[in-house]
Amino acid sequence: MEDTYEIKTITSDVEIQQCFEVALVLRPHLDRNKWSGTIAEMVSTEKYTLMGIFYEEKIVAFVGYRIMTTLHSGNIIYIDDLCTLQHYRGRGFGGKLLSHVRAVAEYKSMDAVVLDTGFDNHNAQKLYFNNGFEFSAVHLHAHLK
Fold it and tell me: Does position 103 have pLDDT exceeding 50, yes or no?
């Protein structure tokens, strides 16, 4: 029996709140009290989009991405977040979200889809490699707080 799911843009406050539980899998430092406001700000000022997989009447996975232009890669979709609830991993939802983002990028004639991943996040790296991603840079940052 095939899983029945729907991929759709997440826009309502209720849906954004449902994403918080999923986001904690990848980003346990997040503050529930700031979550909705942060997402609203990102959507309104940074071209951030949330796409979720709705399965069993709830959001079990989501991808958050931005459309931007960079000198190194051109017009891109940058994936900030790709998260799946632990219980729903292994069902291909991450790959389905990556394929969906790629289709959006192709439809918009973007130059690339770009993301960063942790050095030790081997499961995610396997997913990315299996979905056509390859290493092209090392991401560095300096913590200010």
Answer: yes
Summarize pLDDT for 46-101 with one digit per residue, the tens: 999 999 999 988 999 999 999 999 999 999 999 999 999 999 999 999 999 999 99
Conformational region of residue 74, where left means phi above 0, alpha means psi within -120 to 50, and beta covers everything else: left
pLDDT value of position 140: 80
Token code pair at residue 141: 């940052």
- With beta carbons less than 8 A apart as the criterion, state whether 49 and 8 touch: no
| Strand 74-84 with 112-115, pairing | parallel
Give the span between the Cα atoms of 26 and 90, in whole angstroms.
16
- Tell me the backbone φ, ψ of residue 38, rounded to 5 degrees: -65, -45
120 CB neighbour count, 10 Å cutoff: 8
CA distance 92 to 131: 11
CA distances 43 to 131, 134, 136, Å, are 26, 28, 27
| Residue 1 identity | M
pTM above 0.85, yes or no: yes
The overall average pLDDT reported for the chain is 93
Q: For tokens 């399965």, what's the residue?
A: 55
